[in-house]
Amino acid sequence: MKRVLLLGGTGFVGRAVCERLVEQGGGAGVRITVPTRRLSHARCVQFLPTVDPIECDVHDEDVLARLVAGHDAVVNLIAILHGSAAEFERVHVRLAQRLAAACTAANVRRVIHISALGVSATAPSDYLRSKAAGEAALQAAPLDLTLLRPSVIFGAEDRFLNLFAALQAVFPVLPMAGLSAQFQPVWVEDVAAAVAHCLFDPATAGQTFECVGPRIFTLGELVQLAGRVSGHERKLIALPDSMGELQAWAMEMLPGVPLMSRDNVRSMQVPNVATRQLPDLKALDIRPSALESIAPQYLAPDASIARLNRWRALRRLA
User: Has residue 282 been placed in a domain?
Assistant: First the structure.
């Protein structure tokens, strides 16, 4: 393998994958193409050796076909957490369909696709249903496909724990619904390691792996942990589940990216934890890192990146 097309390479997970592939594949002469809507978005990876950013729109069918041609493998990380049913369809389903067609036409068989836990055609949310349809589109093509299904992903630049820390630095109490929802958070570096392992191990083709951490948390426990570690633990007021969609609707009305949407609330009806019916990170020789040991490194008040991340999180609410 010499050329890898990395879709979504400038995002939170994509940056970690770029760094891991450069580190792990440098000796093998691997080059990584990272498409981006604007080259300015690629500043975080453009100085990495063997990474080639290119400005283009991957949702354009002809552009995607030209991108895929000449590569030996494709990694698809592109996804959204918020949006309308049409937006989920465009990003999770139509892009997967176009990618499958482009790979088939260019005879590029190796594809690594990042999906999500809980996907199903009958799931309660547009997010999970569209993710399932995206998987199905790729599985229907003649590809050497590996699916990775992560739980919520945490790390120094996440929009999850950092946001909960930021909110508790500002508000004296946090009224929230869905505090009993279950997650099995996985470190972004472990997900990146899984992508790299699958790319360099052809035996993983045709398999699906669940990417989860070693412990299951409720949403309430995660919010409390973020507050405690950042030095601003606040009282949580548990709202009844019946209030969940109403609270999320109110958040959707605020400017910026919402903390939670009604579709997120519906997704949380499905436990975001491993089914244990599929192989996990240990099957890829990866020992998942504990959130409790990683989060203090970037959430603690004296962590150099903590203030910047919390400022960014608050800006997204503004």
Answer: no
Same domain (yes/no): 123, 260: no
Q: Say what the pLDDT of residue 90 is.
A: 98
Q: What is the structure's pLDDT at 310?
A: 47
Query: Is it the case that residue 314 has pLDDT exceeding 70?
Result: no
Provide the domain limits for residue 99.
3-153+186-211
Q: In the chain, what percentage of residues exceed pLDDT 70? A: 94
Q: CB count, 10 Å around CB of 173? A: 10
Q: How many residues does the chain have?
A: 318
Question: How far, in Å, are 71, 156, 169, 280 from residue 8 at the CA level?
Answer: 16, 18, 31, 23
Summarised one tens digit per residue, pLDDT across range 67-121 is 999 999 999 999 999 999 999 999 999 999 999 999 999 999 999 999 999 999 9
SS3 273: coil
Same domain for 121 and 245: no
Specify whether 124 is located in the same domain as 139: yes
Do 115 and 104 lie in a common domain?
yes
Query: CA distances (Å), 184 to each of 50, 58, 113, 226, 305, in order?
Result: 33, 31, 20, 15, 24
Domain count, the chain: 2
> In angstroms, rounded to a whole number, what is the distance separating the alpha carbons of residues 10 and 18?
9
Q: The tokens of 16 are what?
A: 């970690």
Say yes or no to pLDDT of 306 above 60.
no
Confirm if 34 and 52 have CB atoms less than 8 A apart: yes
In a domain, 24, yes or no: yes
Q: Report yes or no on 283 lying in a domain.
A: no
Mean pLDDT, residues 260-280 taken together: 94
Same domain, yes or no, for 76 and 173?
Answer: no
Assigned domain for 52 exists: yes
Tell me, yes or no, whether 122 and 38 share the same domain: yes
pTM score above 0.85: yes
Query: In this structure, are 91 and 232 located in the same domain?
Result: no
Helix, strand, coil share (%) of the chain residues, nearest 5: 45, 15, 35
User: In angstroms, rounded to a whole number, what is the distance separating the alpha carbons of residues 219 and 308?
Assistant: 24
**pLDDT in the model for residue 230:** 92
